[in-house]
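sorry to bug you again but im stuck and you know this stuff better than me. below you get a single protein, a line of residues and a line of whole numbers that encode the local backbone shape. mainly i need to know what kind of three dimensional shape the backbone takes. anything you notice is useful, everything is just below:

***
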Amino acid sequence: MSDFRFAFPLAFLLLLPAAFVLVRQWQGRWRAAPAVLRYSDTRLLRGLSAGSRLRLRRLPDALRLLAWLCLVVALARPQAGAAREILRGQGIDMVLAVDISDSMGTGDFAPYTRLDAAKQVLDAFIAGRSYDRIGLVVFAEAALYRAPPTLDYPLLRRILGDIAYASSIGLSNRTAIGVGLAAAASMLRESTAPSRVIIVLTDGANNAGLIDPLSAAQAAHALGIRVYTIGMGAPGPASDLDEDALRAVALAADGRYFNALQWQDLQTIYAEIDRLERSGVERLVTVRWQEQAAPWLLAALALLLLERGLRRTLFQTIP
């Protein structure tokens, strides 16, 4: 990141005299010097056209004012510097595990379906992180790796936007929460981050896969991974949501369980997790300033030399 500043901006007050001179000249208030030669009748000159030297007679004055401007800018000490960002500590490694079973197409998270609401909220969640590596796993009857933990948030958000329902990618409409959790934990197994987190989002119960969700949570806890679980939809006879199992999974991995009944609930839940899981990264920004006055001084010198040369040649006056 590049920066620019003036170390002594008060020097620009010296432009006021130049502005005063310009105003006085524009108003024509300077007292005219007495003529060297007097003519009894100037009507003889009335038909003569003005030459280029007459039209440019103010050029030396303009060059002098420009030189003054360059000198003032140089006196204000223009400085340019490149900012260097130093990070202390390390961010969190996190994996988002998202249920893509067809039941996530239920439209009770108005104006979205459950999956679309999840994608909207997760997109904002990812955009709000800064130094945390985030990965993505989707699951139905099986788990699919979509993105390893990465800092490339724009790419991750594009991948998130492209995830589709299980039936559209050839998976049956069942839910293997344990397999999804195990896949997410596998992503974080080799991580050396000081904090590792998995967020499991589902609207059903574990009814597929060979891995029990509680066993997967205990294994994740043994690896030092915290697990948050989020259940979408209202529990009850008409719902497949298994709150007890999700609560037990979160408890086994030192996390918390949340229930989202509508889109706003989902926003609040991820905002709460965002607050709980903040990395202790410190940003230190240092700027090495370099003086940039030399070009302005050279320009002032060139303008003054040109002004003096013109006054002694093309625009020489008598006396």
User: Anything to note?
Assistant: The longest helix spans residues 294-312.
